User: Fold these one by one.
Assistant:
Number 1:
Amino acid sequence: MTNRQNWAECYTYLAARIHAPRTLEEVQEIVGRSEKVKALGTRHAFNDSADSSGDLISLEHLNQLIDLNLEDRTVTVGAGMRYGELGKVLNEHGLALSNLASLPHISIVGACATATHGSGDQNGNLATSICGIEYVTGDGSLVTFSRSSASAGPNQSGSRAETFTQNRGKPESESKNAQIVKRIDSGPLEGAVVALGALGIATSVTLDLVPEFWIRQDVYEGLPLETALNNFDEIMSGAYSTSLFTDWQTPKINQTWRKRLTTPDDKIEADPTYFGGTLAKHDLNPIKNASPENCTSQTGIPGLWNNRLNHFRMEFTPSVGEELQSEYLVPRQHAVAAIRAVHELADQIAPHLYLTEIRSIAADNLWLSTAYKQDSIAIHFTWHKEWESVHALMPKIEAALSPFSPRPHWGKLFTVPREVLQPRYPKLEAFCELAQRYDRTGKFRNAFLDRNIF
């Protein structure tokens, strides 16, 4: 592979080699002979979390549907499967995921490994849908963590209905080296999902599904910031998913995106105003002067979950591209105070910013999740590609948010030092012990993990 940059072309991978295996067996062979190795998904991380001083394994070819279990309402897919691809498959069977990120282009495993979150007061981050995950660990073993160690994990038939099953590579009888070791693990799934690649190379994941549902998306412009803060809980809880967009250039929320449950034949007119904001009559891009063509349909037109929960459409390049991103999650009870603290820096932030998005995420029990044990608000920054300015601003934002113990998004830029970051994760020590159990030689360690976790 020759492409050594991430999606936004703001990070160049330093690994000596990048591999693109097509079978599980090839992954095991590469892991077995590598001294240092990490997995590479759809390259949406803005930092070095997915880099390695040795080998990188691109998961792009491990993107097949492995098992769709209609009885249990679960789906097992290869680690390279993207959300947009899975959505099309699930629609054929009247099934859905309960939550999506703003981009359908990202890989499922990569998003979950970094606690990428989507939005909604009652919606946990994307990793909370995982009921099983499979890793190739440091010794080449194939290990499955599942919600119940007593039940069959992904790709094990047991008593499970295995409809629509596809093979992930050559049959074992045809393989040159069929030494695949597999065991159902009794370790904690909640420690193995948001794992930053520290346990091994994820090769497949099993997700809980729900019946398909329909969403309408209405956008309001110019909601006064002070009104938004004074009515924050009502606004954020007033839809299945709510996003507030601002560029901090005026004391207003530029756009409020309300994604509400609906029916296919919904003809109800949206209210012309919403807390002082005015209903948009045509589709908008959250970034000023950017084309709305790459955004999901708005103006109250009903659409299936995978064509509305995400902000951007699969068939178009998302967002800006030439950008940097950072994001901080704070406990929900401190949301208004945290937003006010950021607003105090508006004059410094605005010249270097495309957009800030504010969203809510429900608490979960995943050890390294940014929403671990706390309902959270995410304050996200999409920056111009201005490295010096952004790196100078991040410590100021982090200092302003420090009274609220922010947890930075693992896959985005931050400067919070390890000694400040680690106490914000009560299960960090248990996670490190889990990682040591499956990576005794530090094969999956990299600079990011050494700097922030170990």
Number 2:
Amino acid sequence: MSANHVFLLVFENEGYGTVIGGPSLPYLNSLANQYGLATNYFANQHSSLGDYFVLTAGEAPQLNAIGDFAGTVSDDNVVRELAAHNKSWKVYAESLPSVGYTGPTIYPYKRQHNPFAYLSDVVNNPAQAGNLVPFSEFAADLANDRLPNYAYIVPNLQDDMHDCPTGKGESCAIADKQSTADNWLRTNIGPLINSTGFKRDGLLVITFDEAELSDVTNGGGHIATIIVGSNVKPGYKSTTFYQHESTLRLTLEALGIMNFPGKAAAAPSMSEFFQ
């Protein structure tokens, strides 16, 4: 499961049953069929930010009544481990106002979908904060072979299935949100998957923060998680129970880092997906 470039991409608020086999997500489903699919994967809670913290720090602090967090997270986290092991990293956040921005939401960018903006290792370190960049830099970094060892990819609210896409107003069909996200994925991430570098040593994890609010199974509901890479078993379907701390473990383990923040230390390894 060794990789030199790991990518984590998180979509929003869609349950497994609406995603896998969903007619509005043909590209995402083609990846699920071609590569690895975790069929028994559940989000940890029904608060977007809490799930994002588990994906990056292994556990979440106590959030306020509206699911936000006013402070900084000083516990061990993915940035601290990457830095300790001399691994480069970047957050590519669509519609991020500027490089290094850790401030509040400016629509359609949402701070609560970017947990790195809460980590003390980033907020209190201008050099590390400089690794938060607008997604518009992604294509150039791919073309110029400048992608980091670890990349966290954040579509904006109109492209991540959270809100209606541009031009659809405030109320639209789920199919509109899904087809927009699927086209975004094909357009922006398809070139990565097809690149020579990714085929050589890349690993991409696509997951969802949580399921619909009506699904509280295991905390945050049943969601789809897809593992893409050249050394992933083709068409592999896992029935092992996983949650977000296993994805955190995977993104570090693939880079050869064996120190896992928070609950990732005791989480099941996802090594079964690899040849």
Number 3:
Amino acid sequence: MTKKYDLIIIGAGPAGAMAAKTAGENGLSVALLERRTDMEKITRPCSEGLLCNKYKNGEYVTFNERDSRIVYPYNGLSVAYSGPFRKVYKFDQYSADGHTMEMKLYPDESGEGECSMPQHIAIDKEQLINGLVNEARSNSVDIFPGVNVTGAENTSDGVVVTGNGEPYNATYALAADGLNSCLSRRLGFNKERKFLGTLRVKGWRMRGLTVPDPDRHIHIVEGVDAPPLFCICPQARKDEYYLSIGAWNTPADFDTRLSQVMKNSIFSSWFKNAKIIKENCCVLNMYTPITDPFKDNVLLIGDAAAFGQISTHNAILCGWKAAHTITVSRINRTFGKEGVAEYLSWWQKNFYNNTFKLPPVELTDTMTRDEVNYYFSLFSDPLPAFSGYAEMQRIFGEAMAKMMPQLQAHRPEIVSKIQKLREVSPEETWSERNQSGFSSR
């Protein structure tokens, strides 16, 4: 006879592993299903970090270095993390000819001086997940690696999840199976979402880079002449960096692009002694986020319900909140949508409405290489650090207002692009990106 669980969790990333750990601690009977046999292994590009120092999504995430814990003070939560970490204090963007758009450091508590808190903390995501899975196991969670979930069906008293052809029965299921969620597609969620386009990303972990500041997150922006997203992010271990290149719906040769930057660009001296130690890639079909991520006793959490990757610390928060909501549902004997109403309200308030509405297309995504070089040359003063698209737009809007007379006099075509982005909705500016994507609904 098939065992009946209180909760089945699909996916052992940060959201799923945290949900399993929390539900197990709360006394629920839990099964954690993961497609990978090596559960903690990271197989897609990821900068592996925590965004700190800003109140966002109802939280202000910090890292307790003394006791090795990720801390969520507003929600009264902390998570053990015993792996390596690295503090990242700056975020800068470079144009192809080396002009820098520099972000200010956050001030200290007095509002003056250098920052005592980092903007970003690089961690080892594999060690984080391994720790969460081990804690789940120690709290009686049944863990099933190598299980490929292909569907979920509503029943009179819960849900049956099918994995490797076998049924797993529970009162609820949490789908934490990532941005290309199988269950989101199988349950028909994607039919209700707007397809935005296909993002292709390749990443390389490297040692031996000599960037201007070892604790700086860097973007190199070349405009529409090349794949626009070239990121260099410090990793948890000393002397390691993660490079990633992304492009929308284009057949870009990422290896050639990397070689050009390393050997034939103004940045080539950074890579003189660099060695690639790992590489990975992924293809992501991007949709608008899900307002109501619940159907047929399946609740989608984390990336599965979002516009894009929601960061490690936010994924952890989603898993924790979902597990507690289902625990309360069991105590109160309220099932179905009524039982997860608290999570749905929390998701809509703190994530859907606050963060994951369709963001505007960035101006530099519409510029040529020459236009980006000129535009970046106008940013003589550092910009304030920002958190979220709304704050970013405000800061850049204020900066562009000051430089507008010079742009109008010397580069009116850039002014035209700015005006176009202001006049049309994000939906319209994104529409070009789904012409050559390959949606899978």
Number 4:
Amino acid sequence: MLKNNPFPFFLLLPFVFVIGGIAYVFGVVIYRLAFHPLSKYPGPFVAKITDIHIAWHAWRGSRHLHLYRCHEKYGGPLF
């Protein structure tokens, strides 16, 4: 039936996964910036999107200093 089809559709599969992955990431970013219950609170922009921001400071050993600076800049309770 589909033997004489000149285009191999299995070549589209990687593109479908890539486009799906991009759409998923875009959807998560939009949700976290606009619809998440914590989105109305101030803070660093990158920290609103991903946890890599604080993981970087934890890896460097400056997480406590970064959180202190964020509390000074954006307000909030100091532990």
